[in-house]
Amino acid sequence: AALADINISAPRQAVGASDDTNTPPPQQDLNLTVSISDKGFTVAASGAVLYQNDVVGQLPTVPKGPDGKYDLAGLTKKMRAIKDQFGDETKVIINANPEITYETVVDAMDAIRSEGTKILFPDVILSAGVN
Fold first, then answer.
1. How many CB atoms sit inside 10 A of residue 112's CB?
2. CB-count burial class (<10 Å; 0-12, 13-18, 19+) for 111
3. What is the spatial distance between Cα 25 and Cα 4, in angstroms, rounded to a whole number?
4. Rounded to an integer, what is the distance from CA 129 to the centroid of its chain?
5. What confidence tens digit (pLDDT) does each residue in 33-86 have?
6. 131 vs 93, which has greater pLDDT?
């Protein structure tokens, strides 16, 4: 099933507010998404540009290991790097292909939420279509 998120926020202007050019631009939501497929994990964000090894146009991925198992430690490491860059973000949306097992989705959620005692992304949301 296809999923679309549309974030809409009306511009806010106080009555009598002046044009203050020193005001920082509003913080845009990261809209971080982790997709799970039979190949591994792919990380994307509509509110910022994320690249694999700083290669433009290449989304960060965490492929399955040589043993064919999901690299959960690699996913946690990738999420830690994103958290270091976007410290205020707490939300991640998980998308999973229909053939992905419930156990794999739960393992990915755990890998995204924390690294040891450090909380990374505590607000994990399953997208529509994840069983």
1. 26
2. buried
3. 25
4. 17
5. 999 999 999 998 876 666 555 545 567 889 999 999 999 999 999 999 999 988
6. 93
